[in-house]
User: What shape does this take?
Amino acid sequence: MTTTTPRRDEAAILADKSRTPGMFTAIAHRYDFLNHALSLNIDRRWRRQLVDACNVKPGEHVLDVATGTGDVAIE
Assistant: This one.
């Protein structure tokens, strides 16, 4: 017996994608707090380790293409 998944048309998929920035904006102010609380602040440590491992010198530039709430870029 096979099951089929209903196919969504392209317009519906694009409409869902266009809602993503708004959904993120709605949770962004709570996201960092929850991330720190739920990870018991371990996320702060691995973020510092990540930045240290990049060995960025003063005056150099780094592009964070998946910045989310900007924690890595700020660090």
About this structure: The CA atoms of residues 23 and 63 lie 24 Å apart.
